[in-house]
Automatic annotation (TrEMBL):
One of its GO terms (molecular function) is nucleic acid binding. SMART domains: EXOIII (SM00479). Transmembrane segments: none annotated. It comes from Telmatospirillum siberiense. This is Exonuclease domain-containing protein. One of its GO terms (biological process) is DNA metabolic process. Residues 39-200 form the Exonuclease domain.
Amino acid sequence: MLTSIFDVSPLENDEDGTSIKANPDSEDETMRQPLRLSDIVFLDLEASGLGDRCFPIEIGFIRAHDLSGWSALIRPADRWRKRGTWDHRAEALHGLDRETLESDGQDVRDVARTLNDNLAGKAVFSDAVEFDSHWLGMLFEETMERPAFDLQSVDPLFRSPDLFADLPIMSQHPADTPLQKHRAKDDAMALALQFRQQIK
């Protein structure tokens, strides 16, 4: 497994939630070995805001080789309901409200299980790794489970798009399908498409 920029496990807590510690040596480690295209996954999270007491509300990922993926709204954990902060400015961006999360969101344990089942051993990349690692840490803390994958910055990958084993690209994203900004799966798709454009 590749080393992550921000290690989401083990979790370290402070009074406001989970603190994620940076690993300054990880960026060099990330690109030392070729990556198989089928192992590259792009992940994104949306949150109730950017403050210390905000919490994750949506997560999505896209596989680089075939653009398949998954996303889920996250039903707030009890602790988030009691202590969490909801930023209406963030709601205006992602368009999700608390009522929708309660009615359509998945339990944090189911979300964590799906992530581990699909991403174990994969090279998972984010374009906002400090924030996304923090939200992942909060999510997994509620489940008492450990993540089976590392989250890494896209920066070294985009700087060196040739450092992966050659595999055919299986499918294309329909050009007439618009992507909605500030929604987790669509933001992950945008990263995947940007990466695929670089490696053509």
